[in-house]
Design a protein that fits this description.
The chain has two helices and 14 strands, in the order H-E-E-E-E-E-H-E-E-E-E-E-E-E-E-E. By secondary structure, it is mainly β.
């Protein structure tokens, strides 16, 4: 009985170590690149007004830390504790109402929005950024516990998107390039 208990505890500890691992990012430091804020599968890409919005679904086996997609200034951070819909199995549009952190980053490309959307069972979003601070591409943005979703909305003007739906991406992968960087 003691050996079974020790094995169960060991499995749980190893599972937590695996789930909350922090692999080294392979970041492109090109001035005109945008990196993936998360590990996971690109579920949906859609154009909304003047933005390209990318939804990345994380399973419980993906890395659950998120990263800053570009250099910029954190204009605003909003915590929204709304609904509790299952990320993977519910209607996609309903999950946008789940508990989430919304980051507005003012970059040289325009305003970039990152949404950390919590899942149904373990609804916990842990932010690492502070409002009114400058952040660098690849800085740790925050953590979502277990299954979840990350959305990133990028200004569509001059954006060359390098990913497609159903593609698996890693945090730090280049997901887009801006062909022309606006003059500041």
């Amino acid at each position: 009985m003691l050996i079974k208990s020790i094995l169960v505890i060991l499995v749980i500890v190893l599972l937590f170590l695996y789930l909350f691992r922090e692999p080294q990012l392979n970041i492109s430091y090109s001035q005109n690149s945008i990196i993936s804020p998360a590990y996971g599968k690109v579920y949906k890409i859609q154009k909304i007004n003047n933005y390209i919005c990318i939804s990345i679904i994380l399973t419980i086996f993906d890395v659950h830390f998120q990263y800053v997609p570009c250099n910029g200034y954190v204009n605003n951070i909003t915590y929204d504790k709304s609904g509790i819909f299952n990320i993977v199995y519910s209607d996609y549009d309903k999950t946008r109402y789940n508990e989430k952190m919304i980051y507005e980053i003012k970059s040289k490309f325009g305003k970039v929005f990152v949404y950390q959307i919590a899942g149904y069972f373990f609804r916990r979003v842990i932010p690492y950024l502070k409002k009114n601070t400058y952040v660098n591409k690849g800085d740790k943005l925050g953590l979502i516990t277990f299954g979840s979703r990350v959305d990133i909305c990028l200004p569509s003007k001059n954006l060359n998107l390098l990913i497609h739906e159903n593609q698996y991406i890693k945090g730090g992968d280049t997901i887009g390039l801006y062909i022309k960087i606006p003059e500041t």
